[in-house]
Design a protein that fits this description.
This protein is an all-alpha fold. The chain has 14 helices and no strands. It has a single domain, classed as Orthogonal Bundle (Catalytic domain of cyclic nucleotide phosphodiesterase 4b2b). Helix content is about 60%, strand content about 0%. The protein starts with 8 loop residues before the first helix and ends in a 6-residue tail after the last helix.
C-alpha cells in the first residue's frame, strides 16, 4: 500500500463537502472518465447546468428552490455519491453503457426538482410539496426532455429511477422495464440515502428538515428533539432498505475507494455510522443539552435566527 496516497482526515471530510457545483462537476467528470475516457458529457452537462440554474432561480418560468434541507448541496451530494457508486459497480464487473451512466446522473440531478415553485405559486419555501415533489419532479423532467429535444426514450427510465427515491412508494411496486433498469434505480436510491446521511453536518441539518416537515404538515414530529429520537429508528429502517430492496449495492463504494485511494474503505458508511453513534450520544442527554451538542456549520445558530419572533418595530 502506498501510504502517500492515503487520504488525510481533511481529505475524507472533503468527500462530503459539496457546496460548490463547479467542484462537484470536476470530481464527477474525473470519475466517469475512469469508466470511459472518451465519454461524451454534452447531454449530462446541459442537464447539470440547467438544474443548477433551476435551484438558483435562473431558469425561465420558475423561482429558486428555497427548501432548507433539500437544497442544491443536497443534490450535489446525491449526484457525486451516485457517480462514485456507479464507478464501484462498474469495477465490480457490472458493465454500464454511456446511456445508462447518463440516466443515473440525470436522475440524481432531478430527483428533488419537484420542490421548485413555478412563477405564480411562490408561497413558503416549497416544502409544502414534500409529499408530491417526486411526481412534480417527474413532470418537470418530461417537459424538460421534450423542450431540450433530448432522446425521448430517456423519459420513461428516468421516471422510474426518480420514483426509486420516493419514500412514499415501496421500491417493490415500481414497474421497472427490466432488471438492469432496476439496478440503475437501486444506484440512485442508495445514493439519495447514503449521500445525505454521510454529510458531516447531517445531524445539524435535521433541524432544517424539521422546519420543512413543519411547513408541510408532514409527519407526527412534536419538536426537533422528537425528530432526533426518531432518526435513530429511521437509520435502522434505512439499513434494512439498503440491504434488502436496494440489494446491498452500497458495498460497491468500497471498490471505488480502492481504485481511487488504494484502500478498502467505504467512507460513506463509515461516516454514517459515526453520525449515528454521535446521535446516540446526543439523545442520551437531557433535551436542553441536545442543541449544544450540534456545533457544525453554524446551523443551530442560523436556525434560531430564522425561527426567532420578529422584534417589534
Amino acid at each position: 500500500m502506498d501510504m502517500k496516497n492515503l487520504p488525510t482526515p481533511a481529505g475524507i471530510n472533503s468527500l462530503f463537502a459539496n457546496s460548490n457545483p463547479d467542484e462537484v462537476w470536476i470530481k464527477a467528470a474525473d470519475i466517469v472518465r475512469r469508466i470511459n475516457p472518451a465519454y461524451d458529457f454534452s447531454l449530462v452537462k446541459t442537464a447539470f447546468d440547467d438544474v443548477v440554474r433551476l435551484f438558483r432561480g435562473e431558469y425561465p418560468g420558475y423561482g429558486s428552490i428555497k427548501t432548507l434541507y433539500h437544497d442544491l448541496p443536497h443534490t450535489m451530494d446525491v449526484l457525486l455519491c451516485a457517480v462514485r457508486l456507479m464507478h464501484g459497480v462498474y469495477i465490480s464487473g457490472t458493465k454500464l453503457t454511456d446511456n445508462e451512466m447518463a440516466l443515473i446522473m440525470m436522475a440524481a440531478l432531478m430527483h428533488d426538482v419537484g420542490y421548485v415553485q413555478r412563477h405564480g405559486e411562490e408561497t413558503g419555501t416549497g416544502a409544502q410539496f414534500t409529499q408530491s415533489h417526486v411526481n412534480r419532479g417527474i413532470e418537470f423532467m418530461r417537459h424538460y426532455i421534450a423542450e431540450q429535444n433530448f432522446p425521448p426514450d430517456l423519459a420513461t427510465p428516468l421516471e422510474l429511477m426518480i420514483q426509486s427515491t420516493n419514500y412514499l412508494l415501496p421500491f417493490s411496486e415500481i414497474k421497472f422495464l427490466d432488471e438492469h433498469t432496476r439496478l440503475l434505480g437501486q444506484i440512485v436510491a442508495t445514493a439519495d440515502l447514503t449521500g445525505q446521511m454521510a454529510d458531516r453536518t447531517y445531524l445539524e441539518k435535521l433541524l432544517l428538515l424539521f422546519l420543512e416537515f413543519k411547513e408541510a404538515h408532514f409527519g407526527d414530529y412534536q419538536n426537533i428533539h422528537d425528530l432526533l429520537y426518531k432518526t435513530q429508528k429511521f437509520y435502522g429502517s434505512t439499513q434494512k432498505k439498503l440491504d434488502g430492496e436496494f440489494g446491498g449495492i452500497y458495498a460497491n463504494l468500497t471498490f471505488h475507494f480502492k481504485d481511487w485511494f488504494g484502500v478498502e474503505n467505504n467512507y460513506y458508511m463509515e461516516s454514517i455510522e459515526k453520525n449515528i453513534a454521535y446521535l446516540s450520544k446526543v439523545i442520551s442527554l437531557d433535551e436542553e443539552q441536545h442543541l449544544s451538542m450540534l456545533k457544525r456549520g453554524g446551523i443551530v445558530e442560523k436556525t434560531r435566527i430564522m425561527t426567532a419572533p420578529n422584534d417589534p418595530a
